[in-house]
Design goal:
Elements: H1 2-26, E1 35-36, E2 39-42, E3 45-49, E4 54-55, E5 59-60, E6 65-68, E7 71-75, E8 78-79, E9 85-87, E10 94-97, E11 102-105, E12 111-114, E13 120-121, E14 127-128, E15 135-136, E16 147-150, E17 155-159, E18 167-171, E19 174-176, E20 184-187, E21 190-192, E22 201-203, E23 212-215, E24 217-219, H2 225-260
Antiparallel strand pairs: 1-8, 2-7, 3-6, 4-5, 9-24, 10-23, 11-12, 11-15, 13-14, 16-17, 17-18, 19-22, 20-21
Helix pairs in contact: 1-2
Amino acid sequence: MQALWTASTGMAGQQTQIDVIANNLANLNTPGFKTARAQFQDLVYQNITTPGAPAPGGTVTPTGVSVGLGTRVASTPRMFAQGSLQQTQNQYDLAIQGDGFFQVTLPDGTIGYTRDGSFQVNGQGQLVTSDGYLVQPGITIPPTATAVTIGADGTVSVTMPGQQNPQQVGQLQLARFANPAGLLARGQNLFVATQASGAPLVATPGQQGTGTLAQGYVEQSNVSLVDQMVALIDAERAYEAMSKVVTTGDQMLQMANGMNG
């Protein structure tokens, strides 16, 4: 009975849906996290009668007869909507208001991209992520600096002892992509570019479509607890319905076997 296989594809799809929702909820408080969702596609069809096939009397069938063979998860794209900004007491915390990603140097020398701007400085005064990855372009804060100011355009300035006027020590830049949903998530709040995402366009914050920076803020996850709980209930109901189809199909097979006996 084809219904057993078709229902099993639906159950497998809802299991993936639950996995995606669980990851969203687990990252409810992860800075810069972007919600993912499962997108489904129907599988191929068994065409018993093709629409437009010849029919008795010289006519053609208006609709035909076809039976679907189930569903599959086609993709799990991320929704890059802006998350809310949370004010912090850290002068190195940065939030992007708008499009774009911070750039960081990964251990293998390649560039990673993140929306998590909860930065710190290492022992050399270099601006780094919470995992110690260097932010690019490199920014070094003098150890004797009494204050650090990061403008909306990414200009990094410091105030030195005995000086009234700040001096610029660096310029942050943001990268944006034609298709951010094509970025590959690698954990640690980081993405890497792929052929699907396209090459990064690097620009000064506020220019060429990139957002501006807010110092002393961190972008929160854009996960909506209410939306995820509703999706969780929907997935549970769909899984329950598919399991009922399997049970019903099994009972029908038992009845058919009894009749044949």
